[in-house]
Design brief:
Mean pLDDT: 85
Strand content: 15-25%
CATH architecture: 3-Layer(aba) Sandwich
Order of helices and strands: HHHEHEHEEHEHHHEHHHHE
Low-confidence stretches: 1-12
Largest sheet: 7 strands, mixed
Helix content: 40-55%
Shape: globular
């Protein structure tokens, strides 16, 4: 079986300009590019033993930005519309499968690492999916998840600036629905969920700092993420022929986001809208 990425490969991942990569893909949604670049930077510091399963792989773009095209990588997703793009990406050298997390089509102990980026928060019953993720890991294998943190809602600009607790709750409820978030677990809650399936939590690290969260939430409103605005219409993929969206991302917007990413990417601390959790299979 193919070996894991080398220490040199890890160093290259840490130095990669993820913002540039994600602006190329999400030129029509700059806040998404900003969040993904911070998320990728967080993951770039983690070792992923091979073979690796990307659970909820989508079109493969995020994984390609971090790993390039490494041997020993599998992908799976329940979204059938994404599977052709994932297969065509060349990222998943060991294949891409349709898979529901409640019953994965892999033998017990297949993987050295299972990772899932911004997926588990969209699953209403993660406690019924984690057993399968644990099952397909070999002893000593790693489970690596990125999810919105237990602090996510409280750090939103729309919550912090709300005129009342009722208005704050109404705003956070809208965000939950817009992004299809079902839960926000704390590190202690993830530790308990992991322990229930024979995984020991080894790392819980917040990313997307409070300042980055405020900027991200404000930018979502500015660029009409999840809602229709004039700017979101002009920057939308259907009007790409106008050149407005790509021109903005290549111009002042790219510089603005670059300055933000430089300030926010390494802002680890006790607070953050995102949470990286890593566990080891007993």
């Amino acid at each position: 079986m193919s070996s894991a990425p080398s220490t040199t490969a890890l160093a290259v991942r840490r130095e990669r300009n993820y913002l540039e990569a994600f602006l190329e893909r999400y030129w029509f949604a700059p806040p998404v590019a900003l969040w993904r670049s911070i998320e990728a930077h967080a993951l770039s510091e983690i070792d992923f033993p091979a073979p690796m399963l990307d659970f909820g792989c989508g079109d493969g773009m995020f994984t390609e930005a971090i790993f390039g095209k490494q041997p020993g990588v599998y992908g799976c997703d329940i979204a059938t519309a994404e599977l052709p793009s994932a297969r065509a990406s060349g990222v998943y050298t060991e294949g891409v499968e349709f898979a529901d997390g409640h019953a994965l089509p892999y033998a017990t102990g297949t993987f050295g690492s299972v990772y899932s980026n911004s997926v588990v928060e969209h699953i209403p019953d993660p406690e019924n999916v984690l057993p399968e993720l644990a099952r397909v890991l070999r002893p000593g294998g790693k489970l690596i998840l990125t999810v919105p943190s237990d602090q996510f809602r409280g750090l939103l600009h729309g919550v912090k600036s709300a005129a009342s607790p009722e208005a704050a709750k109404a705003y956070s409820d809208v965000i939950d629905k817009r992004f299809a978030h079902h839960h926000y677990h704390s590190p202690a809650e993830w530790a308990a969920l992991f322990a229930a399936v024979g995984i020991t939590l080894s790392l819980a690290r917040y990313y997307v700092s409070p300042a980055a969260m405020l900027a991200w939430d404000q930018m979502n409103a500015e660029f009409g993420i999840g809602q229709r605005t004039l700017l979101s219409t002009l920057m939308g993929p259907k009007l790409r022929w106008l050149g407005i969206g790509p021109a903005l991302t290549r111009g002042k917007l790219a510089a603005r986001l670059g300055e933000m990413r430089a300030r926010y990417a390494d802002a680890w601390g006790a607070e953050g809208g995102g949470l990286l959790v890593v566990g080891e299979r007993v």
